[in-house]
Amino acid sequence: MLGDRKVLIIGAGLAGVETAYLLAEAGVKVILCESKKLKRNEAQKLDTVAELVCSNSLKSLKEESAHGLLKKEMEDFGSLMMRVGLETQVPAGDALAVDRVLFSQKIEEIIKSHPLIELKELEVEKPLDLMKVEGADFLVLSTGPMSGKSITDFICQELWDQEKGQDAFFFYDAIAPIVDAETLNYERLYYKDRHQEKEGGDYLNVPFTREEYDHFVEDILAAKKVHSHDFEEEKFFESCLPIDVMAKRGHHTLRYSCMKPIGLFPVNWTEKPYAVLQLRKENLLGSAFNLVGFQTRLTYPEQKRIFQKMPGFENAEFITYGSVHRNFFVNAPLVLRSDLAAQKNDSIYLAGQITGVEGYTESAAMGIYVGLQILRRLQKKESLTLPPETAMGALINYLMTMERAAPSNCHWGIFPQLPNAPRGRKKRKEKKQMLFDRAREAFIKFREEVGV
Description:
alpha/beta; FAD/NAD(P)-binding domain; 2 domains; 6-stranded antiparallel beta sheet
């Protein structure tokens, strides 16, 4: 009887709540521990579970995107993140962005009201001792990339074959600032979504002239920054680079990334903007905007000084400034099995970003995956092997085969390539649709054969 079995989950982020919800819905008792009310890390702002700390975007919903595919698979498995995400959605073009306060609150309400989930406010220092006290069959560590010292030490000591911390790979991640919408000068700004012919849209745009852009880059390069400790190597995730790191790579790097003006030329303007910063609504009220792609290591005073020079930001007030933090993740091929159980102790699973995936959706997907694998074991069934042509299967395949420890999000580059795929820039959309169609076919066939 599944009702007699119990799973202990430490960490109530996206991965933790997905694992907890899937198991509880299947009839398994869950103890879900979260310590943030007792001790927040440097990125946390809310007291509720499933907090989105870096931005409010869960990325693309488009079918021809790998993220859109991953979301479909998660919905098929009953994802709590997707359900609540669509309920708390804010306008963001083709992306799924949410009111992150409502999103977190709603998920906590669902978790707390579930009869088979017990949410405990607890900082766990000895996971195996607590597992024994609770009488849990399995332990899931879903504490995220900013896991506390007790958890990272536990992983290094108990799940590694190396000396303590010797192979504890990490990278640095960064958070973009959020600005008060009422403090912006809208005479300098305009609404438009990229490549949309019509005026208006979900994104508010900040246009830069060449002179304004040149001065901005010069200011960024000369500004004071928060650097890592001397003993820590700075390794940033490529798709989440701080703007000062990008600016250092070349004067025009920002114009080809987070300030790309292509497709954002207003119909009634006579002069094209040289660079454009996009702002995305942070909540349903539209009272705050996230500076899209503007993760930064600049000190707070420097952020205020430089960003207030941007068009329309003359009197801008920031609700939160950007920041940089150290992220911890394991070298999956050395530490985990393909079902994300630890090689040294298969009663312990890792879920979420700590496994080596990058991104909200990917982390939640790994929570679902771990929940499915534990459920199979409780049912005395073989572990699942998702086809690598699927989004979740591609992520697992990447984790298990990566040649160097480097986090990855879900993108078409980690999928098996198509034989006889169409070539050329004009065929990209066609190729992506073919990858999407192949993945859906493989996913549906897999579910029918396995019965999940």
